[in-house]
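F.,

This is the one I mentioned.
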């Protein structure tokens, strides 16, 4: 099972400024749509560390990552 399948990732597209930092970190997981808003891609094989790095790289902190099994919030940390 790929790491992405174990994670619940959300993006607040309204607040996304489209700078592409998440795409630079994890290009199989994130992309920009035609409106320069980040979207999630299907079938990513990016590992968990890369996905978390992408969330951390977001300058406006609009990416959240949770562990699907435990519900633990991995980013941002409380
Ligand atoms: S890093 Fe954040 S602001 Fe930049 S494109 Fe990704 S979600 Fe949008």
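My design for it:
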């Amino acid at each position: 099972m790929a790491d992405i399948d174990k994670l619940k990732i959300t993006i607040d597209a309204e607040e996304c400024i489209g700078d592409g930092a998440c795409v630079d970190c994890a290009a199989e997981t994130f992309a920009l749509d035609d409106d320069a808003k980040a979207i999630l891609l299907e079938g990513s094989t990016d590992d968990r560390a890369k996905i978390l790095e992408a969330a951390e790289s977001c300058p406006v902190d609009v990416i959240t990552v949770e562990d699907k099994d435990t519900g633990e919030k991995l980013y941002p940390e409380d």
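The mean pLDDT is 97.

Talk soon.
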